[in-house]
Amino acid sequence: MEGDPGPGRRVHFETHHGAVHAGEIDRSTFTFLKNVDARSVVALLPLLVAVGIAGYAALSWPGGPQIQYAGFYAALGSGFVTSVRCAVMGPAGLTRPTATAGLLLVTVSLGASLLGLGGLEDIRRNREIPVGLSVQAAGPLTGSSTQTLVMPAPAPGEARDRLRLALTLTDDDPASPTCVHKTVATLTVLTPGVTPGVQRVPAQSEVEFDLGGRRGEVEIEIAVQTREGCALRVAQADGTLFNE
Question: Where does the chain cross the membrane (predicted)?
């Protein structure tokens, strides 16, 4: 067939500067790969890995309190510093008699960066999730009334094993004599499976609940024991979902 080069004919590509044969391209590629120093690639690899992990972290940052990222920062920082040392060292650091020390530095650098990546993924799965609890009930809290705190169902991927509740009760009338220091709140969980079911706490307290694998809404009833004639209100009910 016309145009078919056939098994015995040479293939060439026309360019503005003349014909470039496929065989010549193959030889050039082979020559380039042959001249690549594997030690240069090994020396640069830790730096490329560290920069790649840093870029991935920036694009997919999980959020939450910075304190939980201390290990990630330390590991990736160590990996980056040692990877720069590897890059500066170059192929010369992987030749005898320094090959053992050079390979050890490369290994430490890669290990530190990968450890940082593992820590970031662990934070992504277990990071603390702040949640707001709403108050359902009208009127103040007295010795004969109750209110209900409602934690909404977590968004997909944000469910955790435990709930930490920061609760603050204040006087309903700031101008009246304070009753806060003589008030004890009783928290009763209305949602099955959440423990402990009942907790007695001061008017300003932080308590934890085991959600027992529950992934939906949680309701907690608040009752108070206080002096006669005292009225209080929920000034703060902030929740934090977390894993042990």
Answer: 41-59, 100-120
**Residue 33's pLDDT band (cuts 50, 70, 90):** very low
Please, which residues bridge with residue 163 across strands?
A: 209, 241
Percent residues over pLDDT 90 in the chain? 59
The CA–CA distances, whole Å, from 81 to 75, 109, 209 equal: 10, 8, 42
Measured between alpha carbons, how far is 43 from 116 in angstroms, rounded to an integer? 20
Residue with tokens 């009753």: 179
pLDDT band at 17 (very low <50, low <70, confident <90, very high): low
